[in-house]
Design brief:
alpha+beta, 41% helix
């Protein structure tokens, strides 16, 4: 039989050195509250910039679509003036749900030129107006046509 003698004064006075690695601290297990708050702040700023960019893109797309509609309306009115030339000089106006328009027909050329020509040329100007976020936008197209009838201006 073997007996182990321990000196009680040495057990509590000496430091016990372990070769094992110390247990990880609580900070090594995850992120600190400060790290999470900084990450959330960066994420919030990034999302703000990203969402404002998307909002601006949608706004510009809508403005472009409205401008395309105004241009199509102006082209249609000019085409109607070419197919069925106006009988007289002056203005015609109209509107739809989102746009207002004016078709202005005026004589083309000087008085002497108009007297020498066999047909009566006229300048046709179509102007379309619409509201864009509180601002009035306008688009004008112009063309030349001949007046129907014998109007000499």
């Amino acid at each position: 039989m073997c007996v182990l003698l321990i000196d009680p004064t040495k057990v509590f006075s000496e430091k016990i050195v372990s070769k094992a690695k110390p247990a990880p601290s609580a900070a090594a297990d995850g992120f600190t509250l400060l790290e999470i708050l900084v990450a959330l702040a960066i994420l919030a700023m990034s999302l703000t910039v990203l969402l404002s960019t998307f909002s601006l893109a949608l706004d510009r797309t809508s403005a472009s679509k409205t401008r395309d509609q105004a241009q199509a309306l102006a082209k249609t009115l000019l085409l109607q003036a070419e197919v069925a030339p106006p009988a007289e000089l002056g203005d015609r106006t109209g509107e739809n749900q989102t746009m207002r328009w004016r078709l202005h027909v005026s004589p083309y050329g000087t008085t002497e030129e108009r007297a020498a020509w066999r047909t009566q040329p006229a300048e046709v100007v179509v102007t379309v107006w619409w509201d864009d976020h509180g601002r009035t936008r306008a688009l004008s197209l112009q063309s030349l046509t001949t007046l129907s009838g014998e109007h000499r201006g």
